Amino acid sequence: MPVEVRLPTVLRPHAGGQSTVSANGATIGEVLNDLVTNYPGMAGQVLTEDGTLHRFVNVYVDDDDVRYLEQLDTKVPDGATVSILPAVAGGCGR
Amino acid sequence: MLRLPAQVYTQMVAHCLSGLPDEACGLLGGDLAAGAVATCYPTRNLAASAKLYTVDPKQHLQADRDAEAKGMAIIGVFHSHTHTDAYPSATDVAQAPDPDWHYVLVSLRDTHPMVRSYRIMGERIDEEPVIVEPAP
Q1: Does any CB of chain A come closer than 8 Å to the CB of residue B33?
Q2: Domains of chain A, each with CATH number or no CATH
Q3: For the domain B2-129, what is the CATH code?
Q4: Chain centroid to CA A35: how far?
């Protein structure tokens, strides 16, 4: 069952400028792998080389951050929306 | 160039002052192509630190949805430096999430807050003019 994936502006050029795309999968891991298969330019920006969630992005199923659920094993119910946003952080550092 | 309505400028600086002694942060919604901010989204600093900030991801999601519903996008982030210049640190540059965003620094080191804005592409930092526009 395809789910809607909302993309941050930084990833949109890899999807032809679209803000929302469809991807298939029953878990977040499957959805993100399908996304990267369809839009290879996103490889390395969403998932790391060893297949874990990149630390510079936050991924949500509807309102819930998957890092506080089951990470890549988080289930994606039919009709859910997956949102990807950049992790925003920094600071003077000293 | 970054265009900031006076109300957004005031809200942003007030949020930074209210966060002292820690850094404060928030997101800016508006028109990316025009570099025009319309809405300020103050957020919690989950790092709760005078040296680091982390925008609350849940508030980021809410801001992103609100901006989209209003036909806008999140076009940048602001944060304070409590005791250093209004210039991106190595930490800011390393963690800048989007080369199209505007990165606003509010320095609270001196008596008067100093607001500056930058574009960050890789390790390149370009300052841009900030135009504060009066309320209509």
Answers
A1: no
A2: 2-86 (3.10.20.30)
A3: 3.40.140.10
A4: 8
